[in-house]
Structures are given as C-alpha cells and as structure tokens.
Amino acid sequence: MRYLVAFRASARIPLLQAGKTALATVAAWLLAGALIHHELPTFAAIAALLVVQPSLNQSVARAIERSLGVVAGVLVAYVVGVVFGGGYWVVLVSIVVAIALAWVFRLTPTTSVQVPISAMLVLSIGMSTPAYAVDRIVETVIGAAIGVLVNIFVVPPSAIEPARAAVDALLDEIADRIDALARALSRPHSPRELDELLILSRLLSAMVAKADAALKAADESLSINPQRGRHQPRLTEAVELRNRLDRLVTRTLAMSRTLRDRFTVELLGEPTVAALAEETRRAAHDLRLQRLDAADAPAEASAHVEPPALTAPISVAGPDPQHWILIGSLLEDLRRIREEITGEDVL
C-alpha cells in the first residue's frame, strides 16, 4: 500500500472547487451538445474540466492556452494535409511538426501538448468528418469560456485566509524564538542548547518563504477577482505585517548568534541581564498581540485582550568589561525589536 502514496496528494482540493469543476463540465457538455450535433461534446467538457483552477487568472491563462493550442493544432493539420495529402504516415508528420513549432515559439507546456494532440485528432478522426476541425475549435472555446465564467460568478476563489494564517504562523514562531532568547538570558545553557537556539532561529527563513508564497498566491487570486476591492485591504495588512516580521527575523537571528558566540554563565550575574530577559519576554508577549486573527476577533473578545507589556527603555548599569559587547549588542537588537512591535522610535 505504501506505493499508493506516490499517487495521492498531501491534501484534497477544496470541495467548492470540485463542485465548480463538476458544474462547469456539465454546463459545457449541455451547451456544446445543444449547439453541435455531429459528435458528443467531449472536448467542451475536457476544456471546462481543465480550465477551472484555484485562481481566476490561472483559469483565464489555461483557457487561452488550450484554445490557442487547439487552433494551432488544427492549422498544422490543415497545412500538412494540403501539402502531403492523406495517409497513415501524415499523422506522424503532423505530430512532429506541431512539436517543433511549439518548441520554436516557446509555447507553454499546456499549449505545447495541446497543439500535437489537436493536429493528430484532426487528421486521424477528422479525415472522415469534414466539420470535425471547426467543431473541435468551437467546442473547446465553449468549454473554456464556461469554465472561466463559472469560476468568476460562483464564489470567486480567494486565497486571503491561507495567506493571513501563514503570516500569523510566522509571527507565532518569531515570538517563540524571542521567548527562547528570554529563557536563555535567565538560566545557564549548555553549548548544545545554544547551538539549537541558533539553528531554530535560522529556520525562520523557511517560514518567511512559506508566507511569501502564500501572499503571492493570495495576490494572484485577486488579480481579476470581482471582489478584489473587498479583499485587498486584508491582503495589504498581511503584507505590511510580513515586512515588519522580516526585520524581526533579522534581529532575532542576530540575538541568537550573539548569545551562541559570547554566552558565559558569569553573564547571568550582570544586573542588566535580568531586566533584559524580562523585556525580551514582554516583547514576545506584545508581538503575539499583533496577530492578524486578533484584528478579526469580535469587539467583545477584543475588549478582554491583555494590554501590551513592554515598558520604558532599560536603565543600564556599567557591565563587566568581558560582557559589555554582548550586553550592548543584545540591547540594540531588543531596541529595534521594540520599534518594530510598537512603531515607536526609541532612542
């Protein structure tokens, strides 16, 4: 059974998209069947099936690719048929010519596959059916158009919520890393634990990339979405928070590297370090208050949210000469973290 894993996706497609695909396929079959009586409207159904995509601009792109591929394939079949006439080997010639043209014009993979398929079908099936080529073009255009229209008017797809969730997940992980820094400033740590602290901070870059991919998908889903005006402010809010979090990743990584490189047990005896640890913990607390889903909470829930905990800048006593570089570096990074969280320019 483990071999079946290769044929299964990690997650199901949304049920809504499956329903829209079924609706578009049925509608394309019925409409094309009512307009074209020569053959079963198979190609209209196939076009609709392939055109319904997770985003509207993907649907439009797929519709254009498939339609162009069919038209180009029919033209190739017509030219090859005129030049070489009919025959078993002419079909092979049309396939080779279609593939070569797709390569020369650098067509997309979808169009590149559609051109030889259309040419092959026109010459192999359409030879005995004069109207086959024209019907195939009409069917494909009908199916593609219906696929796009269904995707537009039946709950236009939007990837805003997954994008906001990805940004919140990045925020939570940064807050966890800042909390880990506070713990590291509160008790002795082994070199292995400090190495782990740095490694986990470096892994934040992978979550940044994941959030960026989700935001890109969200922006793509709104490119020709009729509901863009309603969703755009939520996307803009997520992008702005992501940009701030990117700077927090830099500061968190810098603090983790500084601790890993210069931490000593004697550092815990410095009077400033206890205050530094507490302010770092409060920074993690306040960062979590800025989750995007907190902005979506009802007003009643927002009234009970814990207020920010960051206090005034730390008063620094003169550190031991061995620790002043470490403490100064941590204080500067914490100051910048505070600025990103509170929006204040703290001197």
Characterise this structure:
The structure is a single chain. The protein is mainly α and 347 residues long. It folds into 2 domains: 12-153, no CATH class; 160-342. It is 72% helix and 0% strand. It has 14 helices and no strands. The model is unreliable at 299-304 (pLDDT under 50).
Number of domains: 2
* pLDDT < 50 runs, ≥5 residues: 299-304
Beta fraction of the residues?
Answer: under 5%
In round numbers, the mean pLDDT is 82
Report how far apart the termini are: 62 Å
What sort of overall outline do the alpha carbons produce when their principal axes are compared?
Answer: elongated
Write the layout of secondary structure elements.
Blueprint: H1 15-35, H2 42-51, H3 56-84, H4 88-104, H5 109-124, H6 132-153, H7 160-184, H8 191-202, H9 204-221, H10 228-262, H11 271-288, H12 292-295, H13 299-302, H14 324-342
Helix pairs in contact: 1-2, 1-6, 2-3, 2-6, 3-4, 3-5, 3-6, 4-5, 7-8, 7-9, 7-10, 7-11, 8-10, 9-10, 10-14, 11-14
Describe this protein with a few key phrases.
single chain, 347 residues, mainly alpha, 2 domains, 14 helices, 0% strand, elongated
Summarize the structure.
This protein is mainly α and 347 residues long. The protein has helices at residues 15-35, 42-51, 56-84, 88-104, 109-124, 132-153, 160-184, 191-202, 204-221, 228-262, 271-288, 292-295, 299-302, 324-342. It has two domains: 12-153, no CATH class; 160-342.
